[in-house]
Specification:
The chain has helices spanning 3-13, 27-36, 43-54, 70-73, 83-89, 120-130, 150-169, 188-208, 235-249, 266-278, 292-302, 309-327, and strands at 19-22, 63-68, 93-97, 102-105, 108-114, 134-141, 173-180, 217-218, 256-259, 285-290. It has 336 residues and is α/β, with parallel strands linked by helices. The protein has a single domain (3-328), classed as Aldolase class I (TIM Barrel). The strands form 2 sheets. The protein has an 8-stranded parallel β-barrel, surrounded by 7 helices. Strands 4-5 form a two-stranded antiparallel ribbon. The radius of gyration is 19 Å and the shape is globular.
Length: 336
């Protein structure tokens, strides 16, 4: 591990006015997104869709890094360049999702644990050879009155810390993602309580595993009302609760927070990020690593038709530009 290189990469990923595009949907997840639009689920369609995203003209102005999936990092654009080379041409840092998905936690059937640690050292070495410079691991934490269990938080924190330590050993910046889901009827207060507990447990494990905090990024959920909660917290309350939660649990040594969108509408994800950046200086850069909230309009417009690619690219660029403005607290609804 070269701490200075890790720190430089982490800081480049949260450079002012830029954020991360998560394009690392696993096979089953991208299939779900395609099926919703009646797009045939084929390797060529996945490749063509990712090519459209990665070659959007000017994307590097707003996007610092893109997270790829195992299949994607091995694919090529129509001109024969690997996707890693395509991103490098755009000035975008290639990253890779390295977890193997969440399964039921034995003994705790309602809780999930993310798998993928066995053989990870060897896989990381290969991804580094293929040109990746950062990694992502997502823990999935579902909320109701009785869940998650403490065991679930501890097991996922341990896995995130082992992933982070192995990534740094391989010279790759880990994006540590403990996602507390917004699905459910819980109040924003309950979401706060679980998110705070999850983050505190994660940083305990990171410290126990000697992870170099200056060379990671945290990818948390925002603190929100559950999707099915009858009272929905407003923008200011979400921004305030999210920042309060982060201040309690996230050391100032961490260079950046890159939020996931998690099922918020595109505009909401942008508004919430903007509201947090308007509050004023925080110890960490407050940025984005959105999947759905950056891609949804582009995917809808493309819908598997090559002739729509140009318009789809414009839609992606627009969301990237809105979120880049939100990083500076300069987004407003008339940008829509
Ligand atoms: P969403 O922004 O769609 O939640 O995806 C981000 C991500 O990478 C989840 O792992």
């Amino acid at each position: 591990m070269k701490p200075h290189e890790l720190e430089a990469t982490a800081r480049a990923l949260v450079a002012a006015g830029k954020g991360i595009l998560a394009a690392d949907e696993s096979g089953p997840t991208i299939a779900k997104r395609f099926q919703a639009l009646a797009v045939p689920v084929t390797e060529e369609n996945r490749r063509a869709y990712r090519e459209l995203l990665f070659t959007a003209p000017g994307l590097g102005e707003f996007i610092s890094g893109i997270i790829l999936y195992d299949e994607t990092i091995r694919q090529k654009a129509t001109d024969g360049a690997t996707f890693v080379e395509v991103l490098q041409r755009q000035g975008i840092i290639p990253g890779i999702k390295v977890d193997l998905g969440a399964k039921a936690l034995a003994g705790f059937p309602e809780d999930k644990i993310t798998e993928g640690l066995d053989g990870l050292r060897e896989r990381l070495a290969e991804y580094a050879r293929l040109g990746a410079r950062f990694t992502k691991w997502r823990a999935v934490i579902a909320v109701d009155d009785d869940h998650p269990s403490r065991t679930c938080l501890a097991a996922n924190a341990e896995a995130l810390a082992r992933f982070a330590a192995l990534s740094q050993e391989a010279g790759l910046v880990p994006i540590v993602e403990p996602e507390v889901l917004m699905d459910g009827e819980h109040t924003i207060e309950r979401h706060f309580e679980v998110t705070a507990a999850a983050q505190q447990r994660v940083f305990q494990s990171l410290s126990e595993h000697r992870v170099h905090l200056e060379g990671i990024l945290l990818k948390p959920n925002m603190v929100l009302s559950g999707k099915e909660c009858s009272h929905q917290a407003g923008m200011e309350q979400v921004a305030e609760a999210t920042l309060r939660c982060l201040r309690r649990g996230v050391p100032a040594a961490v260079p950046g927070i890159v939020f996931l969108s998690g099922g918020q509408s595109d505009e909401q994800a942008t508004e919430h990020l903007n509201a947090m950046n308007r509050v004023g200086p925080a110890p960490w850069a407050l940025s984005f690593s959105y999947g759905r909230a950056l891609q949804a309009p582009a995917l809808r417009i493309w819908a598997g038709v090559a002739a729509n690619a140009g318009l789809a690219q414009k839609a992606l660029l627009h969301r990237a530009q809105c979120n880049a403005a939100a990083r500076l607290g300069k987004y407003s609804a008339d940008m829509e």
